[in-house]
Amino acid sequence: MAAMAALQSSMASLSLSSNSFFGQRLSFPSPSSLPVKSPEKPCLIVVRLKRWERKKCKPNSLPILHKMHVRVGDTVKVISGDDKGKVGEITKILKHNSTVVLKDINLKTKHVKSREEGEPGQIIKIEAPIHSSNVMLYSKEQNITSRVGHKVLDDGKRVRYLIKTGEVIDSEENWRKLKEEKKKEKTEVAAAS
């Protein structure tokens, strides 16, 4: 503020001809009239991301979740990447970056430090996520990959189906199997701990 006032007074004291542009007095906008941008709000919801990954947020600080054509329990085929051609089942979906984790596919090596004294470190294989655009729904019966379509059945239920084969993916039997498998996993984890 003081620097701006000093600049104005020094420009006013210059004696140049009155008909030149430079002889006229300069008027600077006051700092209070300048638009000030407020810094964007940081995201309040914490998701397990790498330090260098930036997460896009909505104006209300919630993360942007992507719509995906696959769900947990679907059988898919990898259509690009190192594991191209492999068929597997989806075990986990990460909607904030539109990736999926497949059972026993895209295995990466991880070096784990020892946590307690005397315990050796380990080298383990973990399932890394694959982008959802690199997988396609797969029909086990006809061995065909297909895009997904949506339709409403006669009883009013909205289901997904394979466009090439017409096979309905979201049947109640599939959901029952998936729920039973989850219950088994929970009891195994509880028994192990």
Automatic annotation (TrEMBL):
Membrane-crossing residue ranges in chain numbering: none
Keyword presence, Ribonucleoprotein: yes
Organism per entry: Erythroxylum novogranatense
PANTHER family, per database record: MITOCHONDRIAL RIBOSOMAL PROTEIN L24
Listed GO MF terms: RNA binding; structural constituent of ribosome
Protein name stated in the entry: KOW domain-containing protein
Pfam families to which the protein is assigned, alphabetical: KOW, ribosomal_L24
Ribosomal protein as UniProt keyword: yes
GO biological process: translation
KOW domain ranges (all copies): 69-96
